[in-house]
Amino acid sequence: MEVLYEDNHIIIVYKEAGEIVQGDKTGDEPLSEIVKRWIKDKYQKPGNVFLGIVHRLDRPVSGLVVFAKTSKALTRLNNMFRNGEVHKTYWAIVTRPPLEKEATLTDWLVRNERQNKSYAYNHQVPTSKKSILHYKVINQSERYTLLEINLMTGRHHQIRCQLSNMDCPIKGDLKYGAQRSNSDGSISLLSHRIEFIHPVSKENICIESPLPNDNLWQAIGNF
């Protein structure tokens, strides 16, 4: 875990692919507990450490995660995420270049809880949610394309599902159409930048993630 920003109210850390943000049925130690322990040790705090989870990243995804260190920040950040006031930018390495260098995708996504998977439709269907993202090509290699993605909505597996639906699956994402897995079990999707007005100080916060320690990411992401 790498701490990229911290003050009295919030902490922003880099999540490695494979880590879970909060506890689940696997019983693996979540990132939230690692951050709590880090705060406890750094400040030699007695008793329990407060840490609020305001958003999540899928387990195979790497990049920025924001936590609240106070209840005031948690309440305000929850509202900001809900109202679209937190701007997140993702980078994705896809296995096929899109037909257009830049476009806005609009689909209707249906989540299948049992399969833990979403399905995209080009029209509204029962239980579907309108899903919008904007992408642009920012780099290419001989075999792969790097996309920058901005979400207008926040749906379950939205980026993974919508990119797959336009026949550009994310590298390593077997669930959504990639032909091969990545050796470390990750998918090549990075929560790259996050920008918002601080919920307490009202300063503008803009943090960028380091690139994963991976040869392809280092090659295609440094341009």
UniProtKB/TrEMBL annotation:
Pfam families the record matches: PseudoU_synth_2 (PF00849)
GO molecular function, one term: RNA binding
Listed Gene3D superfamilies: Pseudouridine synthase
Entry's Gene Ontology BP terms: pseudouridine synthesis; RNA processing
SUPFAM superfamilies named in the record: Pseudouridine synthase
Iron as UniProt keyword: no
Record's keyword annotation contains Transferase: no
Keyword list, A-Z: Isomerase
PANTHER family assigned to the protein according to its UniProt record, in alphabetical order: MITOCHONDRIAL RNA PSEUDOURIDINE SYNTHASE, PSEUDOURIDYLATE SYNTHASE RPUSD4, MITOCHONDRIAL
Entry similarity comment: Belongs to the pseudouridine synthase RluA family.
Protein name in the entry: 23S rRNA pseudouridine1911/1915/1917 synthase
Organism of derivation: Prevotella jejuni
